[in-house]
Amino acid sequence: MTTRPTLVFVPGAWHSADTWNKVTAELEPQDYKTICTTHPSTLSDPTKGISDDIEEVRKAIFAEVIQGRDVVVVVHSYGGMVGPSAIKGLTEATIERPGCVIGIAMMATGYCVTGVGFLEGIGGNPPPFWKADTEKGYARLIVDTRELFYHDLPEEEGNYWVSRLLNHSLKSLTDSGDQVYSGWKDVPTRYLITTDDRTFPTEVQLGIAEGAKKQGGDVVVEQIHTSHSPMLSKPKETAEFIVRAVENFTK
Predict the structure, then answer these.
(1) Closest C-alpha to 37, from 49, 48, 52
(2) I need a labelling partner for 79 at 20 to 30 A (CA). Which of 7, 88, 200, 248 fits?
(3) Residue 194 · residue 200 · CB < 8 Å
(4) Is the torsion defined by CA of 122, 78, 229, 142 positive or negative?
């Protein structure tokens, strides 16, 4: 039986769980158990909010730690608000729950603030690549999404991933931060900054990492020259980053 921690993967907004498939294909032969979660907010139900996404990830984590398995949470983009919030109270083992969350591997994302929702955290207005469709209840992407997310993939593959983008509920991005928790303060993190990112500027990511360090976070930064989707354009290197994170967390 493996003694490696279980890896629980949390995708970004609009993205399906299978965006992690290339990375899990690298990790599973190394005896890692991988679990890829799906956000309820991406299942074409505009009533689902961030609390539903957090609970979905929390259920996946809890199912592992209750069996005595430690967990590393791997998050991308919007998942960086969901994953850390989901680990609240699960970072120390107990008699009833002998496993625990030991760290978070983060990429192209932010360090969330307890009590602060997504839109509030970025200044209150949507970024220029999406708009609020209040009639149908979704956050609508309004730019060339292949260029936005996948510009370093071959055109055909980039178009495939564009076709896989999902409706994402507006509610999850405009909810209050009642359920948001800075779980990254409770465990060490490794942060993979994407240096060819047309969604989330590199300088913003660097500033976020420095801010987290100043707040007392155990933050180790790495960089990778990719678009916003390193798990797709450089899956081997992304998997190697995750392995290094696990080694760091299990010293």
Answers:
(1) 52
(2) 248
(3) yes
(4) negative
Which amino acid is residue 71, in one-letter code?
Answer: V
d(Cα 234, Cα 226) in Å, to the nearest integer? Answer: 7
**Token pair for residue 169?**
């509920």
Nearest to 223 by CA among 106, 115, 97: 106
Q: Which helix (H) or strand (E) holds 248?
A: helix 235-249
pLDDT the model gives residue 3: 84
Q: What are 186-239's pLDDT values in tens digits?
A: 999 999 999 999 999 999 999 999 999 999 999 999 999 999 999 999 999 999
DSSP calls for 134-172: TTTTEEEE-S-HHHHH-TTS-HHHHHHHHHT----BHHH
38-49: string of b/e by CB count within 10 Å (b at 16+)?
bbbbbeeebebb
Q: Hey, where are the domains in the chain?
A: 6-250
The closest alpha carbon to 117, from 156, 78, 77, 152, belongs to: 78
Superfamily covering domain 6-250:
Alpha/Beta hydrolase fold, catalytic domain (3.40.50.1820)
Read off the pLDDT of residues 17-60 as tens digits, 9 standing for 90 and up: 999 999 999 999 999 999 999 999 999 999 999 999 999 999 99
Q: What is the pTM of this model?
A: 0.97
Q: Which two tokens stand for residue 111?
A: 């360090």
Say whether 221 sits in a helix, a strand or coil.
Answer: strand
Using one digit for the tens of pLDDT, what is the confidence trace for 52-90?
A: 999 999 999 999 999 999 999 999 999 999 999 999 999
pLDDT at 2 over 80: no
